[in-house]
UniProtKB/TrEMBL annotation:
The chain crosses the membrane at residues 235-256. It holds the Pfam family V-set. Residues 1-24 form the signal peptide. Residues 1-130, 132-215 form the Ig-like domain. This is Ig-like domain-containing protein.
């Protein structure tokens, strides 16, 4: 190869590198078993090639589109029947991917590669999966109360507290298990105090997506289980405590009138 040809080849490679644009990563949060959109845009011209690839070991093909139609012959089996493009919007530069039935295994980095007469473009999307806390259960077994929840992702936190705050040692045993779907089930049992003080026991289960809380009202004579409220704000919780306080003292007053 002559020096002149090598110079021409180097020039061509340089031009190709300049024509391949790379954008920063976009963060996308998807809810377990729901549909999710991974955004991708480009400058449209005819003869568009769109390739979605998961940036994991083996770089499995997720979805391809060229010759004006889907090309799914090489699509990874894991994504079969779960991907689609917005074909009526491709001419407007929209190469976004819709992924249905999102699973924990879908979590990771994706690359959207588009190629037109104007050049190539790579966009990267970080997909994270959340299975929010949907329900918190509480039951009393002997001198223990058990707080639990199932089907959560990522790994949740469970905390015990009381209202009003006390110096009691909240002795509890917690366990957490992961299912075949990589979701978490969490459970914790707490030994009830022999204290004569009226207390509200509070169990809170939280993730990065949301949190839920359930309470048990213990008086010196009995226990009363109140339904939990989702997504407690500080204001709502203080309102709840006020209602509990008024209800308890009203019942106490009624007893003395009898």
């Amino acid at each position: 190869m002559t020096l002149q040809r090598m110079s021409r080849l180097s020039c061509v490679l340089s031009v190709l590198l300049l024509l391949t644009l790379t954008t920063g990563d976009t963060e996308v949060s998807c809810v377990f078993m729901e549909s999710c959109i991974l955004p991708c845009s480009f400058q449209y011209t005819a003869d568009i090639y769109i390739h979605w690839i998961q940036e994991t070991e083996g770089h499995p093909p997720v979805h391809s589109f060229y010759y004006n139609k889907d090309q799914l012959g090489l699509q990874d089996q894991f994504f079969r029947g779960r991907t689609s493009l917005f074909k009526d919007q491709i001419s407007r530069g929209n190469a976004s991917l819709q992924l249905t039935g999102v699973e924990v295994q879908d979590q990771g980095r994706y690359r959207c590669h588009t190629s037109t007469m104007r050049g190539n473009k790579d966009s990267f999307i970080n997909l994270r999966v959340d299975a929010p806390v949907s329900k918190v259960n509480m039951e009393q077994v002997g001198n223990r109360i058990i707080c639990s929840s199932e089907g959560i992702y990522p790994k949740p936190d469970l905390t015990w507290s009381t209202s009003p705050p006390s110096n009691l040692n909240l002795q509890n045993q917690s366990s957490i298990q992961q299912t075949e779907q990589q979701l978490y089930n969490i459970s914790s049992s707490l030994i009830l105090s022999d204290s004569e003080t009226d207390l509200i026991y509070i169990c809170t289960i939280s993730t990065r997506k949301n949190w839920r809380r359930v309470t048990l009202f213990k008086t010196s004579k009995h226990f009363k289980h109140f339904l939990y409220t989702n997504f407690f704000s500080h204001y709502n919780f203080m309102t709840f405590l006020f209602i509990v306080f008024v209800s308890y003292h009203f019942s106490f007053y009624q007893c003395f009138r009898l």
